[in-house]
Amino acid sequence: MTPQTRVKERAEEQASAMTTDQQAMIRMVANDLHRLNQSVMKAVDAGVSVELVRSARHHGGDGNWGDLLIPVVVTQAH
């Protein structure tokens, strides 16, 4: 059974005080995260371990920031 991550739902709940443009960007991030989570699960099912690690933090110049991620992948010896 696939775990329920609720990423999209949580993002929509948090977006209620945002502008329309901000809400659209949050929906895009939520959708991309959902696809990323699906890819991580498929990679694990294919026999590798995946850890997402913050590689940098992007600063927007007005106090806003976002974490940038890289995957650390470990294959299992058989």
What does this structure look like?
- This protein is α+β, with helices and mostly antiparallel strands and 78 residues long.
- It has one domain.
- 44% of the residues lie in helices and 29% in strands.
- The protein has helices at residues 7-14, 20-45, and strands at 48-59, 65-75.
- The protein is flat.
- The mean pLDDT is 87.
Helical content stands at: 40-55%
Task: Give the total of beta strands.
Answer: 2
Structural class: alpha+beta
Shape: flat
Radius of gyration computed on alpha carbons: 15 Å
Give, in order, the helices and strands.
HHEE
Main sheet makeup: 2 strands, antiparallel
Number of domains: 1
The averaged pLDDT comes out at 87
**Strand-residue fraction?**
25-35%
What's the end-to-end separation, in Å?
25 Å
Low-confidence segments, given as residue ranges, are none
The largest sheet has its strands arranged as 1-2
Number of helices: 2
